[in-house]
Amino acid sequence: MPKLITLLLLILLLALHKTEIPDSKRASDVRLKVWPKLQKELKEKGLAPYGSVYLRIIKDISVLEVWVKSANKYQLFKTYDVCTYSGGLGTKTRDGDGKSPEGLYTIEPKQLNRVSNYYLAINVGYPNVVDQAKGYTGSAIMVHGHCASIGCYAMTDARIEEIYTLVYEAFTAGQKQIRVDIFPFRMDDTNLKRYAVYKQDAFWRSLKPAYELFEKRQLPVDYHLKGKDYAY
What domain range includes position 141? Predict the structure, then answer.
Protein backbone atom coordinates (compact mmCIF):
# COMPACT_ATOMS: atom_id res chain seq x y z
CA MET A 1 0.00 0.00 0.00
CA PRO A 2 2.74 2.58 0.84
CA LYS A 3 4.31 1.92 -2.59
CA LEU A 4 0.95 2.49 -4.28
CA ILE A 5 0.45 5.76 -2.40
CA THR A 6 3.94 6.88 -3.38
CA LEU A 7 3.24 6.04 -7.05
CA LEU A 8 -0.06 7.92 -6.99
CA LEU A 9 1.62 10.96 -5.41
CA LEU A 10 4.33 10.86 -8.08
CA ILE A 11 1.72 10.73 -10.88
CA LEU A 12 -0.13 13.65 -9.28
CA LEU A 13 3.10 15.65 -8.97
CA LEU A 14 3.97 15.04 -12.61
CA ALA A 15 0.47 16.08 -13.67
CA LEU A 16 0.71 19.31 -11.70
CA HIS A 17 4.05 20.16 -13.30
CA LYS A 18 3.07 19.17 -16.84
CA THR A 19 3.66 22.01 -19.26
CA GLU A 20 0.44 23.24 -20.80
CA ILE A 21 0.76 23.78 -24.54
CA PRO A 22 -1.80 26.23 -25.97
CA ASP A 23 -3.99 24.60 -28.59
CA SER A 24 -7.01 25.32 -30.76
CA LYS A 25 -9.13 23.57 -33.35
CA ARG A 26 -7.28 25.52 -36.04
CA ALA A 27 -3.88 24.30 -34.84
CA SER A 28 -5.19 20.78 -34.25
CA ASP A 29 -6.64 20.58 -37.77
CA VAL A 30 -3.34 21.80 -39.19
CA ARG A 31 -1.42 19.10 -37.32
CA LEU A 32 -3.75 16.40 -38.58
CA LYS A 33 -3.01 17.58 -42.11
CA VAL A 34 0.76 18.18 -42.04
CA TRP A 35 2.22 16.08 -39.22
CA PRO A 36 2.00 12.72 -41.06
CA LYS A 37 3.85 14.26 -44.01
CA LEU A 38 6.50 15.79 -41.74
CA GLN A 39 7.01 12.50 -39.88
CA LYS A 40 7.60 10.75 -43.20
CA GLU A 41 10.13 13.39 -44.28
CA LEU A 42 11.93 13.21 -40.91
CA LYS A 43 12.23 9.43 -41.13
CA GLU A 44 13.51 9.68 -44.71
CA LYS A 45 16.33 11.88 -43.41
CA GLY A 46 17.08 9.53 -40.52
CA LEU A 47 15.64 11.89 -37.92
CA ALA A 48 13.31 11.06 -35.04
CA PRO A 49 9.77 12.45 -35.45
CA TYR A 50 9.86 13.84 -31.91
CA GLY A 51 13.41 15.18 -31.78
CA SER A 52 14.30 18.53 -30.24
CA VAL A 53 14.09 21.51 -32.58
CA TYR A 54 16.32 24.54 -33.20
CA LEU A 55 15.37 27.46 -35.48
CA ARG A 56 17.76 29.81 -37.27
CA ILE A 57 16.84 32.81 -39.41
CA ILE A 58 19.31 34.37 -41.86
CA LYS A 59 17.96 37.80 -42.77
CA ASP A 60 19.78 38.89 -45.91
CA ILE A 61 18.90 35.71 -47.80
CA SER A 62 15.41 35.48 -46.23
CA VAL A 63 15.53 31.91 -44.96
CA LEU A 64 14.34 30.13 -41.84
CA GLU A 65 16.11 26.87 -41.07
CA VAL A 66 14.62 24.09 -38.95
CA TRP A 67 17.21 21.85 -37.32
CA VAL A 68 16.27 18.62 -35.51
CA LYS A 69 18.43 16.94 -32.89
CA SER A 70 19.82 13.51 -33.65
CA ALA A 71 22.05 11.84 -31.07
CA ASN A 72 24.04 14.68 -29.53
CA LYS A 73 23.83 17.33 -32.26
CA TYR A 74 21.35 19.06 -34.57
CA GLN A 75 20.95 18.29 -38.25
CA LEU A 76 19.36 20.56 -40.82
CA PHE A 77 15.89 19.25 -41.62
CA LYS A 78 14.23 21.89 -43.80
CA THR A 79 14.85 25.40 -45.07
CA TYR A 80 11.88 27.71 -45.61
CA ASP A 81 11.86 30.99 -47.53
CA VAL A 82 10.79 33.92 -45.37
CA CYS A 83 7.99 35.57 -47.31
CA THR A 84 8.78 39.04 -45.94
CA TYR A 85 10.23 40.95 -43.01
CA SER A 86 10.37 44.68 -42.49
CA GLY A 87 13.11 47.20 -41.85
CA GLY A 88 16.02 45.64 -43.68
CA LEU A 89 19.27 44.72 -41.92
CA GLY A 90 19.88 45.98 -38.39
CA THR A 91 18.12 44.91 -35.23
CA LYS A 92 14.96 46.31 -33.69
CA THR A 93 15.62 48.96 -31.02
CA ARG A 94 12.29 50.62 -30.25
CA ASP A 95 8.57 50.09 -30.46
CA GLY A 96 7.21 51.27 -33.78
CA ASP A 97 10.51 51.39 -35.68
CA GLY A 98 9.28 48.73 -38.13
CA LYS A 99 12.46 46.70 -37.70
CA SER A 100 12.71 42.95 -37.25
CA PRO A 101 14.99 41.85 -34.39
CA GLU A 102 18.35 40.10 -34.58
CA GLY A 103 19.86 38.10 -31.74
CA LEU A 104 19.48 34.94 -29.69
CA TYR A 105 15.95 34.22 -28.50
CA THR A 106 14.03 31.53 -26.65
CA ILE A 107 10.56 30.10 -27.29
CA GLU A 108 8.45 28.47 -24.57
CA PRO A 109 5.04 26.81 -25.05
CA LYS A 110 3.17 29.89 -23.82
CA GLN A 111 4.57 31.81 -26.80
CA LEU A 112 2.54 29.80 -29.30
CA ASN A 113 -0.40 31.82 -30.65
CA ARG A 114 -2.78 29.29 -32.14
CA VAL A 115 -5.51 31.87 -32.93
CA SER A 116 -3.41 34.68 -34.39
CA ASN A 117 -4.87 37.25 -36.79
CA TYR A 118 -1.96 36.11 -38.97
CA TYR A 119 -3.19 32.48 -39.03
CA LEU A 120 -0.66 30.82 -36.69
CA ALA A 121 2.15 32.61 -34.87
CA ILE A 122 5.15 31.98 -32.63
CA ASN A 123 6.44 34.79 -30.42
CA VAL A 124 10.26 34.80 -30.73
CA GLY A 125 10.80 36.30 -27.26
CA TYR A 126 11.91 39.83 -28.10
CA PRO A 127 13.14 41.69 -26.08
CA ASN A 128 15.64 39.27 -24.55
CA VAL A 129 18.03 40.13 -21.70
CA VAL A 130 20.52 41.85 -24.04
CA ASP A 131 17.78 43.92 -25.69
CA GLN A 132 16.45 44.90 -22.28
CA ALA A 133 19.92 45.86 -21.02
CA LYS A 134 20.28 48.14 -24.04
CA GLY A 135 16.90 49.73 -23.31
CA TYR A 136 15.26 48.42 -26.49
CA THR A 137 11.47 48.46 -26.54
CA GLY A 138 8.73 46.63 -28.40
CA SER A 139 6.88 43.34 -28.02
CA ALA A 140 4.85 40.64 -29.78
CA ILE A 141 7.45 39.94 -32.46
CA MET A 142 6.35 36.82 -34.26
CA VAL A 143 7.09 34.25 -36.90
CA HIS A 144 3.64 34.02 -38.47
CA GLY A 145 1.59 33.43 -41.61
CA HIS A 146 -0.21 35.72 -44.08
CA CYS A 147 2.98 37.06 -45.73
CA ALA A 148 2.63 40.56 -44.22
CA SER A 149 4.99 42.07 -41.67
CA ILE A 150 5.61 45.11 -39.51
CA GLY A 151 8.58 44.00 -37.44
CA CYS A 152 7.83 40.27 -37.68
CA TYR A 153 9.05 37.39 -39.83
CA ALA A 154 6.13 36.46 -42.09
CA MET A 155 5.86 33.11 -43.81
CA THR A 156 3.20 31.85 -46.16
CA ASP A 157 0.38 30.01 -44.40
CA ALA A 158 1.61 26.68 -45.77
CA ARG A 159 5.10 27.28 -44.36
CA ILE A 160 3.94 28.40 -40.92
CA GLU A 161 1.74 25.30 -40.74
CA GLU A 162 4.83 23.11 -40.89
CA ILE A 163 7.04 25.30 -38.66
CA TYR A 164 4.34 25.70 -36.02
CA THR A 165 3.60 21.96 -36.04
CA LEU A 166 7.27 21.02 -35.66
CA VAL A 167 7.61 23.38 -32.70
CA TYR A 168 4.36 22.13 -31.12
CA GLU A 169 5.34 18.48 -31.46
CA ALA A 170 8.79 19.16 -29.98
CA PHE A 171 7.11 20.68 -26.93
CA THR A 172 4.72 17.71 -26.76
CA ALA A 173 7.74 15.39 -26.73
CA GLY A 174 9.15 17.21 -23.69
CA GLN A 175 11.39 19.99 -25.02
CA LYS A 176 11.01 22.87 -22.55
CA GLN A 177 12.55 25.68 -24.58
CA ILE A 178 13.41 26.15 -28.24
CA ARG A 179 16.15 28.49 -29.36
CA VAL A 180 15.57 30.73 -32.34
CA ASP A 181 18.73 32.54 -33.39
CA ILE A 182 18.33 35.41 -35.82
CA PHE A 183 21.40 36.56 -37.75
CA PRO A 184 21.62 39.43 -40.24
CA PHE A 185 23.69 37.25 -42.60
CA ARG A 186 25.94 34.21 -42.46
CA MET A 187 28.55 35.46 -40.02
CA ASP A 188 31.77 34.94 -41.94
CA ASP A 189 34.55 37.47 -42.45
CA THR A 190 33.51 38.15 -46.04
CA ASN A 191 30.02 39.24 -45.03
CA LEU A 192 31.27 41.22 -42.03
CA LYS A 193 33.53 43.19 -44.38
CA ARG A 194 30.71 43.54 -46.90
CA TYR A 195 28.36 45.06 -44.31
CA ALA A 196 30.98 46.90 -42.22
CA VAL A 197 29.59 50.30 -43.25
CA TYR A 198 26.41 49.62 -41.26
CA LYS A 199 26.19 51.27 -37.85
CA GLN A 200 25.50 47.90 -36.20
CA ASP A 201 28.84 46.34 -37.14
CA ALA A 202 29.96 46.07 -33.47
CA PHE A 203 26.68 44.37 -32.47
CA TRP A 204 26.96 41.95 -35.36
CA ARG A 205 30.50 41.03 -34.33
CA SER A 206 29.13 40.18 -30.87
CA LEU A 207 26.85 37.62 -32.56
CA LYS A 208 29.61 36.06 -34.62
CA PRO A 209 30.84 33.60 -31.92
CA ALA A 210 27.30 32.21 -31.52
CA TYR A 211 27.10 31.57 -35.25
CA GLU A 212 30.60 30.08 -35.48
CA LEU A 213 30.17 27.80 -32.46
CA PHE A 214 26.91 26.41 -33.81
CA GLU A 215 28.55 25.78 -37.18
CA LYS A 216 31.34 23.92 -35.40
CA ARG A 217 29.30 21.93 -32.85
CA GLN A 218 25.77 21.87 -34.28
CA LEU A 219 24.51 22.87 -30.83
CA PRO A 220 23.08 26.28 -29.83
CA VAL A 221 25.64 28.09 -27.72
CA ASP A 222 24.89 29.11 -24.14
CA TYR A 223 25.24 32.83 -23.54
CA HIS A 224 25.02 35.32 -20.71
CA LEU A 225 24.85 39.06 -20.30
CA LYS A 226 28.16 40.89 -19.86
CA GLY A 227 27.62 44.60 -19.51
CA LYS A 228 25.08 45.13 -22.25
CA ASP A 229 26.35 42.54 -24.69
CA TYR A 230 26.32 38.83 -25.43
CA ALA A 231 29.10 36.80 -23.80
CA TYR A 232 29.83 33.10 -24.25
Answer: 18-231
